[in-house]
Amino acid sequence: MGPSLDISIALIAVAPFLVAALAPWVKSFAGGLAGWVLAIVPAAIFISFVGFIPTITDLSVIRVGLDWIPSYGISFSFFVDGLSLVFGLLISGIGTFIVIYSGAYLAGHPHQGRFFSYMLMFMGSMLGLVLADNVFTLFVFWELTSITSFLLIGFDHTRQAARRAAIQALVVTGGGGLALLAGLILLTLITGQNSLTGMLTTAGVVQQSPLYFAALGLVLAGAFAKSAQVPLHFWLPNAMEAPTPVSAYLHSATMVKAGVYLLARMNPVLGGTDQWFWILTVVGGVTLLMGAALAVRQTDLKQMLAYTTLGSLGLLVLLIGFGTKEAILGAILYLCAHSLFKGAMFMIAGVIDHGTGTRDIRILSGLREAMPVTFIAAVLAAISMAGFPIAIGFLAKEEMYLAMTQGLWPDLLFLAVLILGNAMMMVVGLIIAFKPFLGPVADTPHAPHEGSLGLLVGPVVLAVLGVVAGLFTPWINASVLNPTGSSIYNNLVDASIYLGFDLANPAVWASIATWVLGAVMFWKADQVRNGLRRTGEAIGWTFDQGFDAAMFGAIRLAHRITGALHHGRLEWYILLFFVLLAAALFVPLIMTSSLPPVPDMPILNFYEWGAIGIAAIGLATVLLARTRLTAIAALGIQGFAVALIFMLFGAPDLSFTQFMVETLTVIILALVMTRLHLDQVDHRDLETALRDGAVALAVGAGIMMVLLVVLQTELDLSLTELFRQTSVPIAHGRNIVNVILVDYRAIDTLGEISVVMAAGLAILALIRLRASPLATARKQQKGRAA
C-alpha cells in the first residue's frame, strides 16, 4: 500500500462534506447545471474506488488511520476490503446519478442548494460508515446517517406528514444507534480490540463469552432498526414523504443497507451460532414476506417500491443469517442487483410523477408513446427485479436458491419463503414496468411528457447495467465475489458462478416456480391486491399505529412524572435533595464497611473553643430566631466561624474568600427575602421540625464521617513535593499558594472570579429590581401631589 492510496481514502472520507459546504454557492452560479457540476465529486470517488479493485482482488486490505484519542487507543481509521469496496462503489456510483437526477427533479426549487448539501453530507456519512475501521468512528458515521436522513426526509418541512416521517425515522434509527454503541463497547471489552480489523482476528472469541447474547442483541437492535426489519420496519415506508431523489438513494444503496453491511461485517465476529442463525433467518423471512405482501397491496408507485425494499432487506438478512458460502454469494449478488434495479425503479417513478402529475397506478395507463425511454428503462429494471436471464438478478436468485436446496430442514422452509417473497416482488416489478405504459391513454393531471436528460440518464444506465452485468461472470467472480465473500465468510472463497440454464440444477426449478407464481399473481393482480387489503382491514392494527401509541404513552408518562416530581413546592425539593445527599454519604461507607472510628476529643486552646462557641451561638440563633431577618443574619455566623478557623490555622486567603462568600450570601438572601416580609415568623409544627432536624443531622453526620475517612487516610505528599520543586523554576514564584492559584489551577481560579463577579451582578440586579418599584411609587406620589 502506497501513500497515494492513503491519500485517496482520506479524500474519499472528507470530500463529500467539504463539497456540501460549497453546494449552495455552486447552485447560485451554475444554475440548472449544478447537478452535473456537483456530480463530479461522487464520480471522482467512484473512479478512486475502481482504482482499488486490483489491490482488493488480491485479497489485500488497505488501511489508513489518524490518532484520535491516543490515551485510549482510539484512532480515526478507515480500511478498504472487498465488502467495503462493493458498498463504496454502489454509494458513489449510484450517488453520481442521484445528484444529476436531483438537479433536474428539483429544478427551480428555492432550496435546491440546501438539498444538495444535505444529499452530499448523507453520501459522506454512508461512505464513512462503510470505510470505518475503528468502532467508534463507525458509530459517529452511523449516527450522522440518521441525522442527515432526518434532514432529507423532512426536507419539505411545511408538510406535517414529512415532519412526522423524519422524526419517526430519527427516533427509530437513533435509538438503534444507541443500542449499537452499547454493543460495540461490549465487543471491545470482550475482544480487547476497538477496530473491526482487530475484531476479525479474534473470530470465535466473542461466541465463547458469557456476554455474547447481550452483545448480539444490542448489535442486532442497531442493525434491524437501520435496515427496517420487523417490528422496526414502519419508518421506512413513511420515509417516502421525502423527495423522490432521496427515496431513490436511501432505498437503493445507502441508509437502509447500512444494517445489512453491519451484519455482513460482523458475521465472523458474531456469526456461526444457533442464536445468530435463527434470529436472522426468522426476522429476515418475516420481513421479506410482510414487505412483499404489503408492496402488492399498494397503489402508489413509491409505496410499492418502498415495501419491496423492505422485503429485499429481509431477504438479505435471511441469507446472511443462513451463513453458507452459497447464501453469502447470493446475498452479495442480490445486494448489487437490488441497488441497480431499485435505484432505477425509484427514479422511473419520479419521472412518471414529474411527467404526469400522479403516481397512482390505478390512473396511469398508455404512457408508452409519450415516454418511450422511460418505458424501456422500466422494462429492463423489471427484468432484473424478476430475476429473468441474463440479468444479474437471475444470477442472484440462482445462487440463493442453490443455498436452500442442499438439505431438507430448515432449508426447504426457507426456500418456500424465498420463492413466495420473490414472486410477489416480481409482481410489483411487472406492474410498474407495464401497467403505466400499456393500454389506452389515461387522463392524468397534466399531459404526459418524457423526462429531460438529467432525469433519464440515471435510470437508463442503472437499468442497462442490471441486465448486462450478468454477461461478465468471470470478472464478477474474481473482482467482486471472491474478495467480498472472503470478508463476510471469514474464509477464502473461490466463486464459480456462471450464466447458464441447467434443468438438472434444482435452483433452476425454484426460479421457474417463482416466475410461474409471479405470473399468476400478476394476471390476478387486482384480486390479490383486494384480498390483501381486506386482510389488512380485518387485522385493523399496524406497527405504525403502535409507534404513535408508544410515543403518546411516553409523553403522558413524562407528564405524570413531571407533575409528581416538579410540583412547585420548594420545601419538598430541598428536603428530597438533602435526603439523597445523606444517602449518598452513608450508603457507600456502609456497603464497603468503611465507617471510620470516631477519634477522641482533642485538647483545644481557648481561641479554638472561641471559634466553636461562635458557631454554636450562630446555630442557636438560627433555631430560635423569631423573624426571618434574624435567621438570615445568623446564618452568616457559622460561615464567619469557619473563616476564623482558616485564619487561625494559617490560611488567610481561604479565610478572606470565606468572609467574602458569607457576606455576599447574607446580602443576596436579605435582598431576595425583602419580598417575603422579613419581619414575619415561620412557624413549623413539631412533626416538621423533627423531620427537618433529623435530615439535617444525618447530612452533618455524613459529611463528618467522610471527612474522618479523608483525615485517617495516609497523606500523599507527591503533589506537594511537585509544587515545591517546580514553583520557582517553572512558574517563577516563591509563594507556592499564589503559584498554585495563578498557574497550576488558573482555570479554577478564573472560575472562582467568575462566580464572585456573577454574585456581584446578581446583587446589583436585585438592588435595581427593588429600587424600581420604589421609584415608580415616588413618581406616582409626586404626580398626585401636582
Automatic annotation (TrEMBL):
TM helices/strands, residue ranges: 6-26, 33-56, 76-103, 115-132, 138-155, 167-191, 276-297, 304-322, 328-352, 373-392, 412-434, 455-476, 496-523, 570-591, 606-625, 632-650, 656-673, 694-713, 753-771
InterPro entries reported in the protein's UniProt record: CPA3_Na-H_Antiporter_A (IPR050616), MrpA_C/MbhD (IPR025383), MrpA_C/MbhE (IPR046806), ND/Mrp_TM (IPR001750), Proton_antipo_N (IPR001516)
GO biological process, alphabetically ordered: monoatomic ion transport
A GO CC term assigned to this protein in UniProt: plasma membrane
Domain MrpA C-terminal/MbhD: from-to ranges: 614-676
GO molecular function, one term: antiporter activity
Keyword Magnesium attached: no
Domain NADH:quinone oxidoreductase/Mrp antiporter transmembrane positions: 132-415
Subcellular localization: Cell membrane; Membrane
NCBIfam families in the cross-refs: PRK12647.1
Protein name stated in the entry: Multisubunit sodium/proton antiporter, MrpA subunit (TC 2.A.63.1)
